[in-house]
Prior knowledge:
Layout: E1 11-21, E2 26-31, H1 36-39, E3 45-49, E4 60-69, E5 72-77, H2 83-87, E6 93-97, H3 112-115, E7 119-122, E8 125-135, E9 140-146, E10 149-154, E11 162-164, E12 169-172
Amino acid sequence: MSDDSTTPATQLRVGRLTKAHGLKGAIKLELFTDDPGRRFVPGAVFTLQVPTSSPWHGKTIELVELRWYNQHAVGFFKDVPDREAAETLAKAILWIDQDPTEQTDEEDAWYDHQLVGLAVVRDGVQIGTLTRLEHLPAQDLLIVKTAAGEVMIPFVKAIVPSVDVKTGVITITPPPGLLEELPEEPDTDEPAATPTTPDAQDA
């Protein structure tokens, strides 16, 4: 069983380790901060969010160096000497300690408590309210309470293009079928738009 759904409110999610890179313990990073030069400095210590079965459960990890390869961030960490060790960290989520009263203006970095309770809007119409987030190894999920019940929305840029904490709105653009359980407006106007007279002629 995983502890992925529980993280301290005083911590900020700043990245995810994706997969090993090379043979010397390097790990590719997905960054959730637009200021990696401030967050990912040598000596920075991160709390690891991993399944309870992981040997890294309950531990922190220290960054030795952040490099860039073909526009991809790659991290070297203390006590991760080789590829085998790096592979044990795949999909781990990185959190940092931070004062919860400090408001961050980083594009993709929020505290969970900043988002819970925000209105979730699709096509200009509120479809529900965010009740919680689930941080999973593959991706994060928004759990939204709607009139039809709870729905899960992948927290990715393609589906959640905008999060505005100041206005209290999360804008979503879900693909067809993702929210098909939500009631849709009936297409009552379509039959009326079809010509019904036998005299209708083709142009």
